[in-house]
Task: structure prediction
Amino acid sequence: MRFTDSSNLLVLALVASSCCAAPAPLRQLAAASALTITSTLKPKSSTSSLLAIRSSTVQAKASSSLLPSVRSSTIQPKASSSSPPSPPAAQPPAAQAPVLLSPATAEQAGGGVPGGPPPETTFSANALSNFKVANFIEGIESGFFAGALDSLNKDATFNNASADGKSIANVTTQIAAQELVHKATLEGLLSLANESAVPACATIFPVSDTPDFLAKANLVTSAAIGVIITILQSLAGTDPNLLGPLSSILSCESQQDAFFRMSGSNTPSASPFNTALSQTFAYNIALSFVDPRSCPQLLPLPILPSLNLTSPTFVSTAPATPPTSITFTASGVSATDKLFIGWVNQANPIVYSNVTISNGVATADVPAGLTGIAFAALTREISATTVDGLTNVTIAGPAAVLMS
Ligand SMILES: *[C@@H]1O[C@H](CO)[C@@H](O)[C@H](O)[C@H]1NC(C)=O
Ligand SMILES: *[C@@H]1O[C@H](CO)[C@@H](O)[C@H](O)[C@H]1NC(C)=O
Ligand SMILES: *[C@@H]1O[C@H](CO)[C@@H](O)[C@H](O)[C@H]1NC(C)=O
Ligand SMILES: *[C@@H]1O[C@H](CO)[C@@H](O)[C@H](O)[C@H]1NC(C)=O
Ligand SMILES: *[C@@H]1O[C@H](CO)[C@@H](O)[C@H](O)[C@H]1NC(C)=O
Ligand SMILES: *[C@@H]1O[C@H](CO)[C@@H](O)[C@H](O)[C@H]1NC(C)=O
Result:
């Protein structure tokens, strides 16, 4: 059956990427993902049409204008050069849609991809580009969690049960499975529009210990939350019937983030409003979790120079009082340049602080009243009031600063 071909391609691409690019722990991670996906080849009874992978998805890639860097030709040679040819898989019985998730993953997650008829929508170009951004970030999230479960499997803080009998590992296992469901949901929606999924990046940087994990989990989840807020605003104008699944994902991500915050001894929710991010800001934060060279498909969004904070470093537990200044290295800018940090926080307009540079070290005050995570971007202008406007004039950033 046609779906078999494209599913095998996915599996082979994963196996191929696991063979060559990734360091050992990530190789295991990629192998584990391949196993998960492989299990999806088993036909499973499902009424959901969201999940059907169509061979036309693969064919459509080459001609899609939204997919500038998808090259199906790069997937096929990789797969065939490093994997034995797959035997033809058994044909799923008619009327049984193939699924991208194993039953075990859905069980761990607390449920699978939504059933029922697909949302009625024409999938605007805006929706498709937004779903690809969400797909890319969910892919990095799920890889990040799977990698942490692997690399921290001997870490006592991560694995010891707390008073409720559950360890951080137990909860992260469920969250990792939920990310796979989110990813499959987005990919199912993309496939309804005959668009391919954004393939996962192979090399996700490992975490060193539980505090490092909690800090990064808070950050990557906040990036996902931030961009989904923005995507929802955008889809409200073009594809209102797509708001349902995405808004359900948004609140689930917020619950996950509350867990990471609390595990780091923070209040579950630091602010009355979560902080919306531009696609480009969220994309650049997500990219900081991976080796971009290991991403088979980058998005058609700018990759910004990083804003390298020397203080404060982003840790799992917020300081008792919020930081009052940041310092960062300022290469390539002159001390006479007039520079500013634009601060993105909650639903407020951008606020700015002056940058002073001395001996290559730059300092900026943190404006009063920022809570949760604030995102800082280096800029020469102070006129933008929205995160989109700030993104357009960002010289370096965004850098995340944990306020509370
Ligand atoms: C984890 O549990 C083991 C066995 O009960 C105990 O010896 C160890 O001190 C605990 N470590 C942490 C960090 O909780
Ligand atoms: C937590 O994870 C351990 C190790 O995988 C497992 O044995 C245990 O059943 C899990 N506990 C809960 C409450 O899920
Ligand atoms: C997807 O492709 C199928 C088969 O070519 C076609 O029938 C369908 O209309 C396409 N859907 C969209 C949203 O383009
Ligand atoms: C941040 O560090 C990177 C790598 O060292 C460097 O290439 C980049 O120029 C730095 N960014 C700024 C704004 O100094
Ligand atoms: C930034 O510097 C300008 C002078 O260049 C000064 O007028 C302004 O008050 C400063 N802003 C802050 C927040 O310190
Ligand atoms: C940012 O740049 C894009 C692309 O040039 C433009 O469409 C958009 O209007 C700009 N946004 C703002 C707020 O300036």
Remarks:
- The CA atoms of residues 244 and 341 lie 36 Å apart.
